[in-house]
Write a structure and sequence with these properties.
Blueprint: E1 3-7, H1 15-41, H2 47-55, H3 57-62, E2 71-76, E3 79-83, H4 91-118, H5 123-138
Antiparallel strand pairs: 1-2, 2-3
Helix pairs in contact: 1-2, 1-4, 4-5
Length: about 140
């Protein structure tokens, strides 16, 4: 019988430590990370590295652990499968989207998200937008 574990919740430092981190390091380090991520994602070879950087943006901004809500880890004897329940678009459609729209719209999306995070009050919306960047870039679900 397979073992199914649903992962959820967040861990991380408290509000005061996160706030101090943001004031001293997070705001400028996240801008550098966004810029590097976009340059990586503007090349086909660098997309995996760019997406990895984008996935770490919440930790860079405010030491916030990335969310894994909705991810299921299924273990069958000695094999582990991570299931997200999402079916991807056709690779040709995704490639056309990337070439025509994704590369420039992802830059706009990331800098708007960074500006939202810079206002502090807009940080939840900024993190939400950062989570959507892979979809904007290549229609990745």
């Amino acid at each position: 019988m397979p073992t199914v574990v649903t992962v959820g919740g967040r861990r991380g430092p408290g509000c005061i430590v996160s706030s101090l981190w943001y004031i001293l390091v997070g705001w400028w380090a996240s801008f550098v990370a966004v810029t590097v991520a976009w340059f990586c994602m503007s090349t086909v070879i660098g997309i995996p590295l760019g997406v990895a950087i984008i996935n770490s943006i919440p930790k860079i901004v405010a030491l916030r652990e990335p969310s894994q809500a909705g991810v299921q880890i299924i273990t069958l004897s000695d094999t582990t499968v991570i299931a997200t329940g999402q079916i991807q678009h056709n690779i040709i459609i995704r490639a056309i989207w990337f070439l025509l729209v994704g590369w420039w719209l992802s830059a706009a999306c990331m800098y708007v998200a960074w500006l939202l995070c810079a206002t502090i009050i807009g940080m939840p919306a900024g993190f939400w937008l950062f989570d959507r960047v892979p979809m904007v870039l290549s229609l990745r679900r």
